[in-house]
Here is the input.
Amino acid sequence: MENHKNVTLVEHPVVARDLTILRNQSVSITEFRAALKRISTILGYFALKDLPLRTLTVETPIEETEGYEIDTDVVVVPILRAGLGLVNGIVDFIPDAKVGHLGMYRDEDTHQPVDYYTNLPEGIEDAYLVLVDPMLATGGSANDALNYLKTQGAQQIHFISLISAPEGIAFLQKKHPDIQIITAAIDDRLNDDAFIVPGLGDAGDRYFGTI
Ligand code: PRP
Here is the structure.
């Protein structure tokens, strides 16, 4: 695992293998979905490493001992649509996590994010939020999402981006220097259509089969 300022680059053989499956345009939608779910579990694990714990005692079959439980609400916030593909891999190991939705799409001509839906659970001020989106390209969508979450009172936010462009990382570091980005790859650049190169194409289209 390599650490840049505010960026956790998760390096792991399983992540490298799954990232390659996701990049490969020839894999089936079944393989794509399965790899995205597996990789989201690993990225989620790193995004949740600062979760607060409270102590409790448990009785093992042998004796009483000290243990822990998570001392906060966890809210996973996918940026729709593609972020939905990262939710279940995290909810699998935080089964009481709440899920807030932020609907936005990128205008194909201006590359600017357009908001169309928001639905957050109560109590995000005190919760541990994990914002998830497979792609950080220009950073416009993530910037909008983070601005919105902060105006709603969110205090603790980690951002999972499966594949990040250097341009998007630089933009977020400038706009939200307090936010930790957890990513599996920092790719080369954006092309003229603001797609990540080499990237994996349009994550939402590949995950939902709308190509
Ligand atoms: C993609 C992606 C991010 C955004 C990244 O979504 O999932 O949300 O673009 O680009 P940015 O960093 O330049 O804002 P898209 O607009 O394709 O919508 P979708 O998830 O509904 O497919």
Q: What stands out?
A: The pocket of PRP is lined by residues 79-82, 105-106, 111, 113, 133-142, 168, 194, 202-204 (CB under 6 Å).
